[in-house]
Automatic annotation (TrEMBL):
Protein name as it appears in the record: Pyrin domain-containing protein
Lineage of source species: Eukaryota, Metazoa, Chordata, Craniata, Vertebrata
Pfam families linked: PYRIN (PF02758)
Domain Pyrin: 1-87
InterPro entries according to UniProt: DAPIN, DEATH-like_dom_sf
């Protein structure tokens, strides 16, 4: 599964309030490469696009996303994303399902 699909799957499963928190943390976790004003009224798809645009490697986008998920208390989704990105899915058909809190 492509990284943009993994990231979108995570963000689509966040409740609206958690998504707002994710966007709030994104500017600081991206070392200022994404401004808060660039995230105003942005969809989950647009947010994933912003993250991927500022990252030089896919792994950096995953790392930023995992770090923010942990900050907003969504450790389960963070771990699932890390495992999915690493390919640790036990060679079974895998459907990403993330649940907030």
């Amino acid at each position: 599964m492509a990284v943009q699909e993994l990231l979108l799957g995570v963000l689509e499963d966040l409740y609206a309030e958690d998504f707002k928190k994710f966007q709030w943390f994104l500017p600081s976790e991206s070392d200022g490469r994404i401004l808060k004003s660039h995230l105003e009224n942005k969809s989950r798809i647009e947010t994933v696009s912003k993250v991927l645009c500022i990252c030089t490697e896919e792994s950096e986008a995953v790392d930023i996303t995992v770090k923010i998920l942990k900050k907003i208390g969504n450790n389960n989704a963070a771990e699932k994303l890390k495992k999915a990105y690493a390919g640790d899915v036990n060679d079974k058909p895998f459907k990403l399902t993330f649940h907030s809190k």
